Design the sequence.
């Protein structure tokens, strides 16, 4: 990757990454009931489903009424009664969505989730900044090496 392709700041790097993630989430938010069930039960979902924002496919800072609206949309979509051909998996997905809602409807647990989210965002920003600065230093050092070999 050339230095021209690199974003100039770690904030830009994080923003680019975050924008890409949000585009994927937006695309996935209109999935069919079968696709939503598959998303919630995919390999590695145990880890991803720990994040109630990920489960409900919402931004962490949206108001509680919007969270409730999204919860209702998804719970209707994956409800076992609406998915008779895949009732067992639908029940599991429905429980995952309910668990996410229970966490976010409570002010205290929602605040804890927001705190974890903010900390993760700060750490990611710090890591991106570190990687970016390391890359720049390596580029400078390789140019100096070439200069000394002349």
Sequence:
């Amino acid at each position: 990757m050339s230095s021209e392709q690199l974003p100039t700041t770690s904030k830009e790097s994080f923003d680019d990454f975050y924008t890409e993630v949000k585009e994927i989430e937006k695309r996935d938010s209109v999935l069919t009931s079968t696709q939503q069930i598959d998303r919630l039960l995919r390999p590695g979902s145990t880890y991803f489903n720990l994040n109630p924002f990920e489960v409900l496919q919402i931004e962490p800072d949206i108001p509680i009424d919007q969270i409730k609206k999204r919860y209702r949309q998804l719970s209707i979509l994956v409800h076992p009664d609406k998915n008779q051909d895949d009732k067992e998996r639908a029940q599991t997905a429905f429980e995952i969505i309910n668990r996410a809602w229970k966490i976010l409807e409570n002010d205290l647990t929602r605040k804890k989730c927001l705190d974890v989210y903010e900390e993760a965002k700060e750490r990611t920003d710090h890591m991106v900044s570190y990687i970016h600065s390391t890359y720049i230093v390596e580029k400078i050092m390789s140019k100096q090496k070439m200069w000394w070999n002349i």
